[in-house]
Amino acid sequence: MTYATPEDYIAYFTERDATGVSADYDSDTPDNARIARHLQSASNRIDSWIGARYSLPLGDVPDALRDYCCDIARFLLTGSDHACTEEIRMRYDDAISWLKRV
């Protein structure tokens, strides 16, 4: 189960941000397929944290979980082609910290 969609990601951040971390340098639109892959990866990581405490898949996805999925995916989207800023790292750390407490 994926906790967020590319549309959720773009709504949570902005289309400009989504383009900045997902698209090739010569593109001015987000790469929704790349975002979707990283949202799936983020969801898998979330499942590894919460699966020990909750029955999966979850029935209803809380807004906070969707938002943290986007934060984790954003971190995963950074790397060799897209720089990881301090804000991106902090939001990722906050998401992981929250997952440890739920």
Would you give an account of this structure?
The protein has one domain (6-101). 64% of the residues lie in helices and 0% in strands. It is built from five helices and no strands. The model has no long low-confidence stretch (mean pLDDT 94).
**Structure annotation, total helices:** 5
Low-pLDDT residue spans: none
The whole-number mean of residue pLDDT values reads 94
- The value of Rg in angstroms is 13 Å
Order of helices and strands: HHHHH
Oligomer classification? single chain
**Strand-pairing-aware structural class:** mainly alpha
> What would the principal axes of the Cα set say about the shape?
globular
Beta-strand content? under 5%
- What count of structural domains? 1
Helix content: 55-70%
N-to-C terminal Cα separation, in Å?
Answer: 18 Å
The largest β sheet comes out as:
none
Characteristics of this structure?
globular; 102 residues; mainly alpha
Helix and strand layout, with pairings?
Blueprint: H1 6-12, H2 15-22, H3 32-50, H4 63-77, H5 86-101
Please summarize what this structure is.
By secondary structure, the chain is an all-alpha fold. The chain has helices spanning 6-12, 15-22, 32-50, 63-77, 86-101. The protein has one domain (6-101).
